[in-house]
Each structure stands twice: as C-alpha cells, then as structure tokens.
Design brief:
The complex is a heterotetramer of chains A (176), B (386), C (86) and D (297). Chain A has six helices and six strands, in the order βαβββαββαααα. With 176 residues, chain A is α/β, with parallel strands linked by helices. Chain A has a single domain, classed as Pyruvate-ferredoxin Oxidoreductase, domain 3, CATH 3.40.920.10. Chain C is 12% helix and 19% strand. By secondary structure, chain C is of the alpha+beta class. Chain C is built from two helices and four strands, in the order βαββαβ. Chain D has 297 residues and is an alpha/beta fold. Chain D has a single domain, classed as Thiamin diphosphate (ThDP)-binding fold, Pyr/PP domains (Rossmann fold). The chains are: A alpha/beta (176), B alpha/beta (386), C alpha+beta (86), D alpha/beta (297). At the C-D interface, α1 and α2 of C face α1 and α9 of D. β9 of chain B pairs parallel with β2 of chain D. Chain A: Its EC number is 1.2.7.1. Chain A: Pfam families: POR. Chain A: Heterotetramer of one alpha, one beta, one delta and one gamma chain.
Chain lengths: 176, 386, 86, 297
C-alpha cells in the first residue's frame, strides 16, 4: 500500500487533488482512498489531504502517519509546517516552487506549478498541475488516467485546461 | 449495468436514495452530513431526479415532515448527525410508534459539549431505544447498498419500522473510494413503489393516525414494535440474501459479519469503519502467525444475540470496542450488551475514538495485547492522552 | 386487538360515546316558535342539533351535553331549559 | 329555501370536549366550509386529546397528530406527499386541502419555528390557529397569546401581580410578515364570516393563516352557554378585530356599529375578576390604541 500526503492551504484544492489522485489510481486498475485531514481549517490555513493506493481492497481507516510521498502545493508552507514529518526513509517529495533545488533531506522534485497554472488556467490554483508533476516524477499513475480523473472532476473547458496543465507539468518533470 | 465511481460515503448514500426513488426528502444540513443533501439537491436541480425536496428549518422539522409525508403514503428520506439527531429525538419515537418506514442516513458525530464535529457513535447509540432499526456500515459501498436494503426492510409489512443507516463521520463521509453503483432500473424493480396498506392519509378513506394512546392500548403498541424488531432479524437476513442474488454483494448474514473467526481464540467485536482497521491488523498479525478474529455488528438494533452467541462459541478472549460511553455505568453500550449476551464469558470493553480521536493500528494491537492478559471484566480507555 | 400504530380506521367512531349523560339542564326546542334560522344548528359544539326530513330542527339528546348555547342564542326564545331528572 | 349552512357533519358527536367548547364549534364550521377533500393536522392540545382517545375518533376526515411543536412541518410533509402522489396519478384534478388546526401554544409558542418555516417555503395549506389564549389542555398556563392582565395558573394575580404582564403576541401580523397570500382573523361567534374566510383560504394556492378566537369556558371562567356571547363581545369591543390581509391588502371585515366598552367583555370572565375599574381603563386604552392602528374607531 502506498500513502501520499498533500500539503496546501485552505482553498487551494489539496483535498480535490487527493481525490483526483484516488480516482486516477482507480482508472489504472488499483484500489484507492482519498480523504482530507479532518480539521476545521478555513480558507488560507495550512491543510492536509491523503491518498492511499493499493493492489488489493483498502480496509484501513486510520489517518496517514508515515507517507511514502509528500506533495506540497504552496512553497510558503515549507516555513510553516514540517512537511516531511513521518515521511518514510526512502520517501519522495514533490514541491511547487520556483527554486530549482531544495534540500529537505529526502529525494525532492521541484516544479513551478504556479507559473504553469497562471499560464494555462489564468489562476494560481495548482492542484491539477502538481498532480501532473507528481505523476511524471513518480510514475505511480498514468498520465492518461490522471487526465481522465481531472476531466471527471472539472466539466467542459475548465476540465480541458486543467488536464492540459497536468500534462505540461508531467512532461516538464519527466524531461528533467 | 453496474458502474464503479470513486465517491464519498455521503454521495453514496445520496445515490442510494435516488436509486430507491424516494418521493419526498426533508433535510437540514449539518456537518458531516451536508454533502448528502447537497448531492440530492443537485440531482433535482439538474432534472435527473424528480423528488420533492423540503428544505426545512431544523432537523426536528425534517423528521416531522418525513412523518407527514410517510403517513400520506410516499417513500421518504432524510439525513442528519449528532446535534441534529438529538434534536429529532422526540420525533424518532413518533416515526416508529406510527410504524412509518422512513429511512435516514446518520453520519455519526460526537455530541456537544464541547462542540465536536468528528466521529463517534454517541449520537445514534443514544437513540437505540427509539424503535428504529440501526445498520452500521463499514465502507461506502455498504452505505449505498444499506440505504437500498433499508427500504426493503422498513417497508416489509411484517416490519413497518424506520431504519437508520449509520456511517462514520469524515472517515466515510469525506473519503472517496471506489463504489459500485447498481443499475437504476434494477433497483427500482427490486424495491417497487411504496404503497402502504396499514395507513395513509386519504380523504377517500379517512383514518386517524397518532391518536391518544390511552393506558388500555399503549402497552400493546410497544409490544408490537418489540415483535416487529424480532421479526426484523429474519427479514434483514432474507434481504441480505435477496440483495446478493440480484446485486452480488452481501454483508455477513445481514446482522453480523465475521472475519477470521475460525480457530481464533481472541476476537474483537466492533461496529462501523474501525472494523476495516481491525481487519488490517488481523491480516498483519496473521503474517506473523497470530490468529485474531473480528465480529462486526452490522445491525445494532435489532441486536443479534443468538448469532453472536453462536459465532463466539468457544472463544476465550472477547474484546468489545465502543465509540461511545455510558456515564455512571462506565462501560460502552455495546460492551454492556455483549456482557448481557455472553453471560459466562470474560468481556473486556475498550472505549475508543471519541470525538474523532483516530483509532490507529497500534491502538488495535494494544487492545489485543491487553485482552490476552486481562483476566476479568474490565473497561479500558484506549488512545487517551496522559 | 390494538391496531398496528394505534390507527383508528372507523371515522367518527365517537358516536358510540353517548355524551347525553353529561347533561344537568336539558334544552327543549319548541318547533312552533322556531324560524329555522339555523343559529342553534351551527353553534352546537356537539353537532347534536339536526334537521329532520320535514325540515324541523331537533335536538339529539344522545349527545347534547346541555351547554345551553342554543337556548341562549336562539333569537325567538324557542329553546327553553329544564332541569334534567335521572 | 336555501340552507344557510352545509349539513354534512365531518366532526362526529360523542367527543369529550367540555360542554360549550369553542374549539368544537370552530372545527364544525371549518370542516363545513372546507368539505371532504381535506387532511387535518393537529398538534398536541385540547382538541387532539378530546377527539381521539383510542379506539375512537371524532374525525370523519383523514387526521394526524404527531407532537406539539411541529404542525407546520408535518403539514409541509403531507402537502409535498400529495404533490408526489399526483405525479403517480392519485388525486387527479382534486385540490386536497392540508389544514393544520393548532392551538395558540402550538402556534405562537412552541410551534412558531415550524410554522414560520412552512409559511416561508410557501406550502399550500390552510393553517388555523384556534386561540383560547392559554394552555388549556394542561390546566390554563399562560401562553404568549394570553392577553394582558388575564390570570393564568402560571400568571396568577397576587400582591405583586395583576396576572399576565405582557400583551398578546400578534400572530396574524407575524404570519403576514412572511408575505403569504392570505391572512385573516375570525371568531366562532361570526360563523358566516369565519366560513367565508376558510373557504377563501382553501381556494388560494399557497400558505394561508387564519387566527380564530375561541372562548373557553374553563380557562376563561364563564357559563358554557355564554361561549358565543363572549366571542361576540370580544369583537364588538374591538378587543379582537375581524380583518383579512389578501395579497398584502388589509381590510376590516366586520365593523361594529359602535364599539362597546371593554368592561362588558372583561366583567363576564373570571380570569379578569381581580381587576379594578382603573385596571380595566388601562386595558381599554390599550384596545383603543390598537383599534386606531387598524382603522377601527
């Protein structure tokens, strides 16, 4: 079983990201769970969300304490919370940042998801973009399934734009 | 054709209500139930579902409106949690007393004070004696299936009792996972249209519903409910099998579900989503050659005494997990009832997961370790901070 | 046998309960003075005043509780009252 | 000759109401006006208790009672169920009137929230508040409809009390504030006016509210034969003006030729017997002011 933790700020779509990832994994033929950290956070506050992926039915219902992957949607969170807390020793981090390199003590991928999102979506909502980067970096889910899950979540033109943002990020990180 | 979608427990319940073709919905939003009524509102707004949706001003009115609608002879649905369920309390007795087959989703949440929006079972356990059938689902699939089954059970002429489908707040309500959605036509064929024979408000056949229950009749009305609850055990089992025949899914025998019970000396008894985490731990222990079983209570009312006795025969260590407490008796409700059911056994009762306190695999392991050492009836709080 | 849900299937079944026994005073309607204004008919809390086939108003003493509203409201004093003797 | 009042009795005799009960008179009139296609909703109270002790019922129309505070919500559920049943072809081309008949306590106090919700949501119903100005079912405790200076068991007169210390809650105006199509007041002493209003309300689509004053022999303290007379005095003194508000338009429906002194009304009732002439003067002034406000000189 693989566990992924998303860090974002309320309103940035971290919960939606966790759910899209769960759906994409399902389209890849896996079992999955996607859920928020059950808090009372409002817009702007640091929030977490989780995805579990497995080849067999997932029955565990506790929260995630030792994730295999961490995805950071907002670079300012790096100063606010310990995003790598509990991360497994061989864990991987994907961070939205303009910096090319980050030393978090773990294998880390960086991507300027905000730049891509602004470019393609016109708004700094990075959840789909960073999912593209996550898929490209980890190859845990296919780009095709990710795009399908995104198109399920956002209807019409908005869906297409989001799928495109994910694809751009996917390719960018895969090429690096 | 069944279609699989990755959805939350609240969405699964809403889809269940839509598939069941409910005709009147009366509901008031409350965390963590809200998504259920939002999804239903959207179905109606989009023209996918032609139900009457009363956006009442309180949960008390939600249940009152469901009672009015059900008494007029239509299939009704509502959903609530916690304070909302508590506000309905008085009306719950009236729904069962009038023998109205209302189905309700309760998204389990702790009761105030202090205010807490997270999961425990205190809200629905508090309503255990209201004459409602209570089903506790373990995952989103079971949530959807149980809503459909609930109508079949509630509307059975031998039963005519309301049914509460309980799912763990946030843990199921806010978690997406793959859920197989039955074909609409198949469900509608299975359930048919609700056409009550015993009571419906109709000027062409004027009856009086909800009269003064004088001492000469009141006790009999209670005995009727008592008997219907007893019959419900059979009906729930039958519906579980019927459902399996048509939709290819079943949940134990409908009342209880065992896991790894064969040759298990130590068995945990629990309700709701924690059973998943227990299974997870059981599988891990099995790899290490340790045999622990799980007995999941699916219907807390009617309480499956006979089945429990049978399934726990020969088991030495019985640990009961309670996501609720009975202050003053200082046990959980399920623990107390297991003690009454298995009078000659050692029962250890564990108070866990109150107000959203996470129940982790290591909590479960701690329980098993304690249970194996424990020599007498004992209640222990697990996961309490020092 | 108590019905399921204590539902009462027989509309108007209180007719079995003869409330005439409650009376202390008995209203007596003098048909000759009656102008058929229907005042007593509409104000009777029991619906105990009825119109017979000939169009005359009568008091049904099975149900009349003897409130005497009819007597009080009758514009022609056609309804007098006598002490009930049992 | 035309009959003045319909002959069909949808409310059976043999009920356990007090001799001279005003609520029974109201129900007979309301059902004569509404006819058979009606579903009655009662909340807990006198009317519910004295008409339905199992296994007998006085009702010849479908009737339901659940609890005290939820008449509006139960009626809402029934109204929507009728809509749903119509989709199935039941009650074709028939207008079934949902008619909550609920006391002042169940309306103005404990049931106000459910009533407000039902009015605001626009359910098609004829809500009748039968007002006997206190909790008569439980022994004459004050409600928010109990008038100023009336005595009640929870507002008794005494050295430091003149009985109820607050004026009556203005329910029809509260109902009207919901912007519903029809609000009216009525009194059982004016049967034609009352029945006309009920009939009108039945025909109107949407929520309607009729506040009916209904004297109570036990709670108010008078001889049973005076039920109608006292109701008439309440109207003729201006204590309880009869009016309607139809689509926002206010209209007095009965204008007494000359308002009688309030004292005539007050002195007939034991619930006011502790009052001095000066106290009655205060009440008279209060009534005068309210009448002026409504354009009833």
């Amino acid at each position: 079983m693989i566990e992924i933790r998303f860090h974002g700020r309320g309103g940035q779509g971290a919960v939606t990201a966790a759910k899209i990832l769960a759906k994409a994994a399902f389209y890849d033929g896996k079992y999955s769970q996607g859920f928020p950290f059950f808090g009372v956070e409002r817009r702007g506050a640091p929030v977490m969300a989780f995805t579990r992926i497995d080849d067999k039915k997932i029955v565990i219902r506790s929260q995630v304490y030792n994730p295999d992957y961490v995805v950071v949607l907002d670079p300012t969170l790096l100063d606010a919370v310990n995003v790598v807390e509990g991360l497994k020793e061989d864990g991987v981090v994907v961070v939205n940042t303009t910096k090319e390199e980050l030393d978090l003590g773990f294998k880390t991928y960086t991507i300027d998801a905000t730049g891509i999102a602004l470019d393609i979506l016109g708004v700094p909502i990075v959840n789909t973009t960073i999912l593209g980067a996550f898929a490209g970096a980890t190859k845990l889910i296919s780009l095709e399934s990710l795009k399908r899950a995104i198109l399920d979540t956002f209807k019409g033109k908005l869906g297409e734009k989001n799928a495109k943002a994910a694809e751009v990020a996917y390719r960018m990180i895969s090429e690096n | 054709m069944e279609k699989i979608d990755v959805i939350t427990g609240t969405t699964a319940a809403a889809i269940g209500a839509k598939l069941a073709n409910v005709e009147v919905i009366a509901a008031y939003p409350i965390t963590p139930q809200s998504e259920c009524v939002e999804v239903l509102a959207k179905f109606i707004a989009d023209g996918e579902f032609d139900a009457e949706y009363i956006k009442v001003e309180s949960e008390h009115s939600a249940m009152a409106a469901c009672i009015g609608a059900s008494a007029t002879g239509v299939r009704t649905f509502t959903a609530t949690a916690s304070q909302g369920l508590a506000l309905m309390h008085e009306m719950l007795y009236i729904a069962s007393g009038m023998r109205l087959p209302i189905v309700m989703l309760n998204t389990n949440r702790a009761l105030s004070a202090p205010i807490n929006i997270w999961c425990d079972h205190q809200d629905s356990i508090t309503e255990r004696d209201t004459g409602w059938i209570q089903i506790y689902a373990k995952d989103n699939q079971e949530t959807l299936d149980s809503i459909i089954q609930a109508y079949r059970i509630a509307e059975d002429e031998d039963i005519l009792l309301p049914v509460m489908v309980c799912i763990d707040g946030f843990i199921l309500t806010h978690t997406v996972e793959p859920v197989s959605i039955p074909d609409e036509k198949k469900v509608r064929d299975y359930l048919g249209i609700y056409e009550p024979k015993h009571a419906y408000l109709d000027p062409d056949r004027p009856i009086t519903q909800g009269p003064v229950g004088v001492p000469e009749c009141y006790m009999e009305t209670r005995k009727h409910i008592w008997d219907a609850m007893e019959r419900a055990k059979k009906v729930i089992k039958r519906v579980n099998e019927e459902y399996y025949e048509i939709f290819n899914r079943r949940y134990g025998n409908g009342l209880v579900e065992g896991y790894n019970l064969e040759n298990a000396d130590t068995v945990l008894v629990a309700m709701g989503s924690v059973c998943g985490t227990i299974r997870y731990v059981i599988d891990k222990l099995k790899e290490k050659g340790k045999n622990v079983g799980l007995l999941r209570i699916r219907t807390y009312r009617p309480f499956p005494k006979e089945e429990i006795k049978e399934m726990l025969e020969g088991v030495e260590n019985v640990g009961v997990l309670d996501r609720n407490v009975s202050f003053g008796f200082n046990m959980g409700a399920l623990g107390t009832e297991m003690l009454a059911t298995l009078r000659d056994k050692k029962i250890c009762n564990y108070i866990v997961g109150l107000g959203g306190r996470d129940i982790t695999p290591s909590n479960i392991e701690e329980i098993i370790r304690h249970l194996e050492k424990c020599e007498d009836v004992e209640t222990k709080w697990i996961g309490l901070k020092e | 046998m108590v019905t399921i849900g204590a539902i009462i299937y027989e509309p108007g079944s209180t007719v079995r309960n003869k409330t005439g026994s409650w009376r202390t005073f008995r209203p007596v309607l003098n048909s000759e003075k009656c102008i058929k204004c229907e005042i007593c008919y509409i104000f009777c809390p029991e619906g105990a005043i009825y119109e017979d086939e000939k169009g005359n108003f009568k008091i049904n003493y099975d149900y009349c509780k003897g409130c005497l509203i009819c007597s009080k409201e009758c514009p022609t004093n056609a309804i007098t009252r006598i002490r009930e003797e049992k | 000759m035309d009959k003045r009042f319909p002959r069909e009795e949808l409310f059976a005799p043999g009920h356990r109401g007090c001799a001279g009960c005003g609520a029974s008179i109201l129900v007979r009139m309301a059902l004569k006006a509404a006819g058979r296609d009606v579903i009655v909703v009662n909340s807990t109270g006198c009317l519910e208790v004295f008409t339905t002790p199992y296994p007998e019922t006085a009702w010849r129309v479908p009737w339901i009672h659940t609890a005290f505070e939820c008449g509006g919500a139960v009626a809402a559920g029934i109204e929507r169920a009728i809509k749903a049943l119509k989709k199935r072809g039941k009650f074709k081309d028939r207008k079934i009137t949902v008619m909550p008949i609920i006391g002042d306590g169940g309306t103005a106090d404990i049931g106000l929230q459910a009533l407000s919700g039902a009015l605001e949501r626009g359910h098609d119903m004829v809500y009748i508040m039968y007002d006997n100005e206190a909790y008569m079912n439980t022994g004459v405790q004050r409600s928010s409809a109990t008038p100023l200076f009336a005595s009640a068991t929870t507002a008794p007169p005494g050295k430091r009390s003149k009985g109820e210390d607050r004026p009556k809650k203005d329910m029809p105006m509260i109902a009207a504030a919901h912007g519903i199509p029809y609000v009216a007041t009525a009194c059982i002493s004016y049967p034609e006016d009352l029945m006309k209003k009920v009939k009108k309300a039945c025909e109107i689509e949407g929520p309607t509210f009729i506040h009916v004053l209904q004297p109570c022999t036990v709670g108010w303290g008078y001889n049973p034969e005076d039920t109608i007379k006292i109701g008439r005095l309440a109207v003729e003194t201006g204590f309880f003006p009869l009016y309607e508000i139809e689509h926002g338009e206010f209209r007095i429906t009965y204008r007494p030729p000359k308002r009688k002194p309030l004292k005539e009304y007050i002195r007939m009732q034991k619930r006011y017997r502790h009052l001095t002439d000066e106290d009655i003067e205060i009440l008279q002034k209060y009534v005068d002011e309210r009448c002026k406000l409504l354009g009833l000189e």
